[in-house]
Design goal:
Layout (H helix, E strand, L loop, with lengths): L10 H67 L2 H9 L12 H14 L3 E8 L4 E8 L2 E4 L12 H7 L7 E2 L3 E2 L12 E10 L5 E10 L1 H4 L10 E5 L5 E3 L8 H4 L5 H4 L1 H8 L3 E5 L7 E7 L17 E7 H4 L1 H47 L15 H71 L7 H32 L7 E3 L1 H19 L2 E6 L7 E3 L1 H17 L5 E9 L2 E8 L21 H7 L5 H11 L3 E7 L3 E9 L22
Parallel strand pairs: 14-16
Antiparallel strand pairs: 1-2, 1-7, 2-3, 4-6, 5-6, 6-7, 8-9, 8-12, 10-11, 11-12, 13-15, 16-17, 17-19, 18-19
Helix pairs in contact: 1-10, 10-11, 11-12, 12-16, 13-14, 14-16
Length: 672
Amino acid sequence: MVVIVIRFQPRLQLRLIFAFVFVLLIPTALIGTYTINTLSNTLIEAARASSLQSTVRDTDLIGTFLGRSSSDILTVSQSANLHHYVSTLSVNNAAGLTDDLAPLQNLFMSYIQNQEVYESIALLDTSGHEVVRLNHVNGIIAFARPDELQSRAHDTYFTLALGLAPGQVSISRLSLSTIGSAAEKNLRPVLHFSVAALDDSGKVAGVLVMDLLGQSFLSLLKPHSLNEQVYLIDIDGTYLAGPDQSRLYGRDLHTGYSFFKDSPDEAGKIFGQIQGTYFGSVDHPDWMQSFARVVPNMGSQNSSQSLIRWTVYRVQPISTVLADVYNSRIVVLALSTLALLIALIIASLLTFQIVRPLRLLAKAARQLGAGHWDMQLPPVRGHDEIGELTRSFNEMTAAIKVAYDDLKQRTLELETANALAKENSRLKSEFMATMSHELRTPLNAIIGFSGVMMSGMGGELDSEATHMVQRIDANSTRLLGLINDILDIAKIEAGRLEIVNEPVSLAEMMKAWRAQMGVLAEKKGLAFDLNISPDIPADIYMDRERLTQLVVNLLSNAFKFTEVGSVTLSINRDKDKLLVDVSDTGIGIPPHAMNYIFDEFRQVDGSTRRAFGGTGLGLAIVRNLCRMMDGSIHVSSIMGKGSTFTVTLPLRPVEKQGTPSLVIASENVGLS
């Protein structure tokens, strides 16, 4: 029975829903993508601008702070008490104290008490030795004892200050303090401000130095978020401020930490520009970076002797910068999902109105598929596509019923024909068995009795009687061979011929074939050569009987069609294949006959059949045996020079190791 199942639901409705949603999804995706890209670019530019603005603001704060410190030292240097004291200094007595030192000490004390950002104020003579120094360390304000006064003659800021014009200030690099004990010096950076101290006549009589605590302005560098990092970097790559204290002041502490080592690509860009931003880089592809150079805000003062070459460097992960972008994406995706859900509901309602009539039609079609061919589908109102489909189904039902009845009738006829064919096959098998018994038995008896007569056991025969008996024996033997060929081809076609592989020795089989076929060679005066390759295993798995039948058929054909020359049997090896070649120097095969010589009851032509005899079954049996043994056969021939039949069979050695070389030498068993 033919079963027809048509399912419109849920596939059709789902396709309609998907189509509706897909139409809405395209503009939603385009708008969402445009919105996200625009918002991303806007937020990225805003983040870059904000980061650069914060960095520039930090540099302005530091520059302003340094400018105020420059103003402080200029204010102290212009004090009348300082001018009066340096006027009394004697070059020959660099450390000489006079009664005028007290006003100077009072000046230093009053200033440093109001300015806690300074570590010390010192006055140096022109040789660089401290004349007086007021320290402010760990909340303690005290003047240094004479034995604590140091020489600063080798400090760059002292040398620069001696050559400054009035009103100019020298600012040194940021370095670690040399005042106090080892514990007090631990990462206490200071900045040295120095000016020339003038006497009453305006000549340089010493140098005034104020040591500004670095923490007073470094504390201005603060990150604006948890993931942000702010650094102050000197022109030589030394970290002056940053989140990792162990990496600071590598130049002074000889730790080897340097911005040039950590970020060689960024260092060249940052120190080569005044300010800028980067969104990812070679050294830090996941960071947003902004930087700006620190310039002391000296106002109207000349700051050309400043050694400050600092850059404020601010970094933060790009993922942090894009956090708002990610949030906006979530919002856009949520809105898009909501829109799709609404579209899904609307599509479901609309498609239900479309699919409902089709469901009724599908139900009727399933009943039709169950075999109710006489059923007519219920009509559907309207003249649209569904109505047309209903009418087409009714027409199809009638056509299917007619076709089904015809198919049923044909099926009955085929079943009858099949039963008849099986009966014919059974009768054929019985006939073949009967013929095998009824024909072969008397033929064997005839051959046996003719042999007895020729042997003289029944009495001596004259020459004419002997000739007749020999003809009886020869023709009986030929007839028996023909019957055997017909039986073999029938068994092969019926699939009743079995291949039984067993261990065999090809060398022994070659000897048997030589003994069996040597009589034909001797009778026709032909050379009979047998060759076996030395790499053939001693024992292989093969069906002894079928291989013998195959080889004997080929050799029989070779001797039959060869009048002069030789017949050669060669066995060779090609990897896992066994090659059996039978060559002759006979009449050859014309090219047009190559296409049918393996067909049953076919020879080259009628004249060949008459001249050489045979039914044309030998090569057909050989071909079929090759196929049953998982092999193949092909032939090459030259008219008037001979033919070569090559059989290729699987080579299955009994043992893996090779065997001793064995060659059956070519032997001319015929007459020379």
